């Protein structure tokens, strides 16, 4: 079983912490529009797909062993699940657009 973490509302700082701690995915509650969904994805992905900061121990140990042409960040970007939780009327109105956000 892969753990995922539901973040407290309006707390983007936790995204990096829970993913670095080993969560396989993050859930952001009360996503109401495309801008919020895009910001959430950017914070959960490493460059060039996002703006997630690099963990301090990322370049040490067995986790750096990847397929040729891949970096550890490519692997982490591919394996961290990002869920937008729709809980408000505004979110329901915008759900189609939110669902189209890549990542």
Features:
single chain; 103 residues; alpha/beta; three-stranded parallel sheet; 11% strand
Concise structural overview:
The protein has 103 residues and is of the alpha/beta class. Helices cover 36% and strands 11% of the residues.
The helix content is 25-40%
Number of helices: 5
Main-sheet strand order equals 1-2-3
Instruction: Give the oligomeric state.
Output: single chain
Spans of at least 5 consecutive residues with low confidence: none
Total beta strand runs: 3
Shape: elongated
Gyration radius, in Å? 14 Å
Mean pLDDT: 88
Largest sheet: 3 strands, parallel
Structural class: alpha/beta
How would you characterize this protein structure?
The chain is an alpha/beta fold and 103 residues long. It contains 5 helices and 3 strands. The protein has helices spanning 13-20, 34-44, 72-79, 89-93, 95-99, and strands at 4-6, 25-28, 81-84. A 3-stranded parallel β-sheet has the order 1-2-3, with helices on one face. Helix 1 links the parallel strand 1 (4-6) and strand 2. The longest helix has 11 residues, at 34-44. The model has no long low-confidence stretch (mean pLDDT 88).
